[in-house]
Design goal:
heterodimer; A: about 210 residues; mainly alpha; 6 helices; about 75% helix; B: about 80 residues; about 0% strand
Chain lengths: ~210, ~80
């Protein structure tokens, strides 16, 4: 077991770190293409059905959406702190930052669950065969809006769950990794977490803030 | 502690931008509402990418981001041309 690199494929630790970082960015790039295509579907739908989309958007909870955006931004901040502490070798602070990040992620999911249950009870969830009842204009395209809303936010929530599990994995394997390995894992999970945050940064305005004026 | 100050500054900036985007949505600015929201989302993305994801350092990650950006522009551009 070389103290220099974790894998025998690399001559030295800096090359290993560069390869790790590049691979993570490539993965994030593929994720960006996935979400980009879905955003494009939403954009075209919004161009074609602007009025019913704006009316349907007002039925979402702006306070809860705003709260969740703040929670996720805070979790990105604590993730960046974890990266900073690991780079400085302050492992205890890094562990606490990671724990805070995953707790904030769970908080986000809890708020999302409250929103979903509210939308289900109001008959605004055209998913899983639930009855859809909408008394606004153009219910057909309002249903389209809510279908896209559930698809996009649920896909995002799945990514967040994956991020929380990844943090849990880093913490679970903490004692099995050397300091350099820990730092690299924290950086990799961090890049992913920040990307999931960026996806929400775009989801929030396009879903919640359509012409509220 | 320059790093901590930088991250805290980024965090404060992100929360400020969130306040701006929610606040601006209550003003009726016609088509400018969407433009402001997207501009603020792009600004938040820049803050997260540069300060949290350390994209300021030169190297291959920047090339990946540029390539992804190019393909997304092609994807959106060609689709919107047909609209």
């Amino acid at each position: 077991m070389s103290s220099q690199t974790q894998s025998i494929a690399f001559d030295n630790a800096s090359r290993e770190k560069a390869a790790d970082t590049l691979a993570m960015w490539l993965f994030i790039g593929s994720e960006a293409m996935l979400f980009g295509a879905i955003f494009l579907v939403f954009l075209i739908a919004h161009i074609n059905y602007g009025a019913p989309f704006a009316a349907a958007s007002k039925r979402l909870s702006l306070p809860l959406g705003t709260l969740n955006t703040a929670i996720l931004i805070t979790s990105s901040f604590t993730m960046a702190l974890a990266h900073m502490y690991s780079a400085g070798g302050r492992w205890r602070a890094a562990i606490w930052s990671l724990a805070a990040t995953s707790l904030l992620g769970l908080g986000f999911l809890a708020v999302k669950a409250v929103e979903y249950s509210k939308e289900f009870s109001e008959g605004l969830a055209p998913v899983l065969g639930a009855p859809f009842s909408y008394n606004g204009p153009d219910p057909v395209h309002a249903e389209f809006f809510f279908g896209l809303y559930f698809a996009m936010t649920f896909l995002h929530a799945l990514h967040l769950i994956a991020g929380i599990l990844a943090i849990a994995g880093v913490l679970a394997l903490w004692s099995h990794a050397n300091p350099a390995g820990r730092a690299r894992r924290i950086q990799a999970v961090g890049l992913y977490w920040h990307f999931v945050d960026i996806v929400w940064v775009f989801l929030f305005p396009i879903l919640y803030l359509i012409n509220r004026g | 502690m320059g790093e901590l100050r930088k991250l805290s500054f980024a965090y404060g900036g992100l929360l400020t931008l969130l306040g701006l985007t929610v606040g601006s949505s209550f003003l009726d600015l016609g088509g400018f509402n969407s433009a402001i929201n997207l501009a603020i989302a792009a600004a938040k993305t820049a803050v997260i990418a540069l300060l949290f994801m350390h994209l300021t350092s030169k190297g291959l990650p920047r090339l990946v981001v540029a390539a992804v950006g190019l393909w997304l522009v092609i994807l959106f551009g060609l689709t919107l041309v047909g609209q």
